[in-house]
Amino acid sequence: GLTAADKTLIKSIWGKVEKETEAIGVEALVRLFKCFPQSKVYFDHFTDLSPSSQKLHAHAKVVLGALTKAVNHLDNITDTLHDISLVHAKKLLVDPVNFELLGHCLEVALAAHFATDFTPEVHLAIDKFLYEVEKALFETYR
Amino acid sequence: VHWTETERATIETVYQKLHLDEVGREALTRLFIVYPWTTRYFKSFGDLSSSKAIASNPKVTEHGLKVMNKLTEAIHNLDHIKDLFHKLSEKHFHELHVDPQNFKLLSKCLIIVLATKLGKQLTPDVQATWEKLLSVVVAALSREYH
Questions:
Q1: CA–CA distance from A31 to each of A2, A74, A78 (Å)?
Q2: Which of B131, B133, B135, B136 is the mutation pick for testing A, counting most A CBs within 10 A?
Q3: Eight-class DSSP state of A87
């Protein structure tokens, strides 16, 4: 699980992320759709998936908002994301592999925006955090 | 695998910006730190337990360069990647006994190193092209497993 050192590193870089959550969220999603186009099947109702799409911007804010909540509740990510897990598990029926793909795209966005801060140690801490998020999202699937 | 002119140009443009020994070493460093179980294949390299130890380990730099040199060959032979990696695939299966999942992990680390080097220049489209390149290499390396 997350060590005290991990939590410090996660909160530290997230402080920088919080200054531009919408931009980073949009970038992560655009990277997801370009690199892993199969993920677009869950967004037929968006019609426009370009970086200027209003719906995409709104969704990016929702996603990053949930991640920020998780960062603020690192000791209880499972409960924090319970309702979001239910939506993905029962309503949206999103294949969980997509959480890993979006996680990777978010890490690429962080590495591109915060090159000097995204050290191997910070990379490890964020990767561990996103794994906890993925587990929490999968919690209500079956 | 079909490569468009844009993809070919994108691959070459990014490649020209890279310092191969640096990128190779940094990708392996992230692999060993973020996915520490991958060190199982490198017991002969000595201490790989921390960023500091890995950074000063000449065997890591040497191996990183080996990997990047092979990737260079792939980049300059995009239409023959399967053949190019035939022997290396056999070696990883029969001799080195490497779980192919490790190829995917190293690919993820390499893309992240590219992001730290290129910043905004690693646009979603550029990333997509390099993800495609690495997935083709990974498939070629996994091909002779049976």
A1: 27, 26, 26
A2: B131
A3: I
Phi–psi pair at B94, nearest 5 degrees: -75, -35
Contact present, B55 and B15 (Cβ < 8 Å): no
Inter-chain touch B124–A111, beta carbons under 8 Å: no
The pTM assigned to this predicted structure is: 0.97
Whole-number pLDDT of residue B55:
86
Q: Give the CA angle between residues B73, B35, A96 to the nearest 5°.
A: 95
How much is the mean pLDDT over chain B? 97
Give domain limits for chain A.
4-139
Helix A97-113 / helix A120-138 crossing angle, nearest 10 deg? 150
Would the ipTM clear 0.85, i.e. be above it?
yes
CATH class, domain A4-139, is mainly alpha
* B145 token code pair: 């497993």
CA neighbours closer than 13 Å in the CB half-sphere of residue A65: 7
Show residues of chain A in contact with B30, CB under 8 Å: 120, 123
- CA-based nearest residue to B12, from B71, B55, B63: B71
CATH architecture of B5-145: Orthogonal Bundle (1.10)
pLDDT tens, residue by residue, A66-83: 999 999 999 999 999 999
